[in-house]
Hints:
By secondary structure, the protein is α/β, with parallel strands linked by helices. The protein is built from 16 helices and 14 strands.
Amino acid sequence: MTSVAWRSKLISFSENLSSKPLRILIHGINYAPELTGIGKYTGEMAAWLVAQGHKVCVVTAPPYYPEWKVALGYSTSYYKHEDIDGLYVWRCPLYVPAKPSGLNRIMHLASFSLSSLPIMIRQILWKPDVVIVVEPPLFCAPSAWLVARLSRAKCWLHIQDFEVDAAFDLGIIPYAWMKHMASAIERWVMRRFDAVSTISHSMLNSLRKKGVDEPILFPNWSDISSMRFDGSGRTLFRAKLGVGEGQCLCLYSGNIAVKQGLEILLEVAEKLPDFRFVICGDGVNRKALQDEVDRLELANIAFLPLQPLERLPAMLSAADIHLVIQRRGAADLVMPSKLANILAIGGPAIVTVEEDSELGRLAEGDNPCVFRCDPENAEKLETAIVQLYGNKDMVEKISINARVYAEQQIDMERVLGKFEQSLRDLVEH
């Protein structure tokens, strides 16, 4: 056989190897049809991998977030198996507290870790090529690692939030004596995995400090082909809210929980009666926030439920200013998932973060993608809203830069295509 023929055979073998479908097992508590947060991204990731021809099995919980209430048609007390267009999903029972606090939040995460263990063990017979576990919860990492080792698969840990750091630093878990032990366990677990990824550069640095040598950047994304500015949708959405084009509409969309600190919006709305504020979403603090709005008789704040995907571009386009509210110290522990779609539609966003944080640096230089102000400071947030709304040139500049950033950095096809190649590299080596 000639050298050319051998080279042709080698190339053909290499192409067949790279196109071979992978068997991918995903383990995580949040999954579609949850509309926001980790569940949204894990659901989109799994569906995308199936569309590329891979075989995917997901071990997860019934949808409950951000309402902290299990969705209609699901249960907290029994297992459920779903076949969704060739994507196999196991729903495992768990405890869902009506009012999550430090202790019952731990019980919530632990209950899923325990109930999902037998389903995970069962997947050893399926012989996955790679096991992906999404944190939070860290409780699931040991079982995912065990299943990977017993099935001779590679194991990948993907971190959406540093739940241990956030739980203690934001006061979600008030028992400071537990932090050293929890952090030590976290570091030990992370170093057992073949690959560890997270969603931002600052979180990559945190992983290095925790002893992970070569962490992988796997950012959250936006489907920029469908997530773009919608002029007619903007007009209709504002009309339904009774907001004229000459009135500033400020939008917060996402989870309504402790780590957001949305009480600051009430102080600002009270001082800006001519501005309209919309809080779209759900979460454990929503009722308390609504009760306080009623008590203060703030007629310029409206609440909306989470919007389905097809209505999201219209709602995001309707806002003159997007509000990405973070508490002090949270910016480099969690990366707000809502920001990806805001950037994709070219929305001018105010982020309340420290100047030296990763989000804060997006506001720097000649091509800012966002407008920054200090966190937990109602007076500065009020000033930022008035200042940005009054500066049309700055709004236009941020809008253009935001869309360019989305196209270059967080395009869904680009991000997931790179991730798929990383999976192949991990499995083949």
